[in-house]
From TrEMBL:
Domain PEGA: 48-93
InterPro entries on file: PEGA
Lineage, broadest ranks: Bacteria, Pseudomonadati, Planctomycetota, Planctomycetia, Planctomycetales
Protein species of origin: Gimesia panareensis
Protein known as: PEGA domain protein
Any Pfam family: PEGA
Amino acid sequence: MSDPVNPHPARAAVPRFRFASVDVKRGSLFALLLLLAAVQTGCVHRRMTIRSVPSGALVKVDGEEIGYTPVSMDFTYYGTREIILTKDGYETQTVMQKVRTPWYQWMPLDAVSDNLLPFEVTNRHEFTYQLQPKVVVPTEELLNRGNLLRSETQIGQ
């Protein structure tokens, strides 16, 4: 029996099936590429390294101990950080350190660098601090200063 509209129904079904198969394959490939693009989107990895001369100083960043120099830490936000370095035999050093924002993190470029780049960008900041030796005042000198202050206050009465 032959169909008056389609005299060869078996042949007509094959191309439709092939086109549907190609469309499914293309759609699957597109969905896979879209998924990979979403998973592999770029981001900015921010890392700060703190060194001291001499090394081995305890480092606190914004009140949180992060380790002994040289030490690195990841961070999320740019801005001014309070960095405290402490080491026996050296003066404790407190620094308000500005961590500058790179140009590709300025608005509106940050939306692209944080979300749409196909690779990761690493933004590194390195800070080195020279520690000053503690000045140890001899006991006798301290006693002399104390006596001098005492005598000055008695004269002022």
